Amino acid sequence: MFSKRSIRRRFLLQLIVASAALVLLFSSFLYLFIQQSIYDEKQAELISTAQNIYTSNSLITARQNASDLLSGLNIELVTLHKDENLLEFYEVSHPDKTTSLILIYPFDFEHSTYLKVSRDITPTKHLLQKILRSIFLINAFGFIVIILYAIAFSKMLISPVSALTRRLANMNEHLLRPIQVENLPEEFEPLGETLNRLMARIQNFVKYQKELFIGAAHELKTPLAVIKLKNQVTLIKKRSPEEYIEALRITNQSVDEMNKIVANILNIGRQEGAQLEMPVEADIIQILKKWEGDFALLAHSENKTLVTHFEPESFQAVLQITLLNQIIQNFLQNAMKFTPDGRTIHFQSHLDNTDIVIEVIDEGCGIDDTIDLFAPFKRQGNKSGVGLGLFLAKSAAEAIGAHISITNRTDGVDGTIARLILPSKLYCLLPQR
Length: 433
Prior knowledge:
Layout: H1 7-56, H2 59-65, H3 67-70, E1 73-79, E2 88-93, E3 99-108, E4 113-120, H4 122-169, H5 189-236, H6 241-274, E5 280-283, H7 284-301, E6 305-310, E7 316-319, H8 321-338, E8 344-352, E9 355-361, H9 389-399, E10 403-408, E11 416-422
């Protein structure tokens, strides 16, 4: 009915063992309690009889005073050599399968005389056996009810998971519909929301992959057409060596453009491999300071100013460092590319509640809000480039669970704000020593 890896199978096996042990212990304790209660009552009767005899100092007088109490008793006066004046109870089984409960009660300690009072408890033993069978029968029935309820309960618990499984099994990359979280039990809402986010990422990935292939084909087709056309024109008639050199130079430029496209497509493959890297703990602020050192020299060489301000002093995170470096490098490269000479680039970080926000603010031409800059082969302005940098940065941010955005400045200065937010649910701020 269930495989060895089935959660229901393990749950039911554990429940059967636990329930069987509970039934056994409960039945045993209940039987022992009932047995002890009955034996205590019988022993109290024997003690009362012995005290009556001891008080009357005569068996005949005691029988006259408590004839009902003495009925069914066997009373003897015996001599025993005992060192202590103590009561003694014990049970004796006879060959005729009867059982007696015997009390040894001190009568005359100076003469070592004791009363031996015995009562036939065979009916009581039979009653206890019936009680024991009844207890186990009732508990066995309860055990079966518990198991049946557990089977139904476990089926009810996994029914939402089974429904999700069937729903996901009928989906493919062309038919991804979000799960109606409001129809799920409250305990499964986080799972449904996680699956919806995963499907949204898959949809974006499929969308971007399609755009990537279409864009790559388009971008490669144009330089190939230019190369072919130039070669055809060159072959029509003989030309001077200088003209052949110029034709080859143009051809090489087209080849270089295609190489850039191929290199960026390879970077996408490397990024997907980086997403499978084992996350490691790193200090985000130290990583930012490393990029500060690299781009400060580059900015100085291009007559630009890089201003940095990092808060807090330390922020520990567990993530793929390669992907984080790819995002920061793209932000800084774009800022350097679009910021005119003599202008300033701000590279900074700060805390937003418990999230850390990393920003690169340039003084470039700004962006067109109507264009999806994160789509592949989308370019802004008249600068050279293939248009895959922000696409790669977006994919890297999604892989590490961060949020990325590009917006225009609102402080009256032309330029853009490239922002990366690392959420607190994935990262933690460590106390400073």
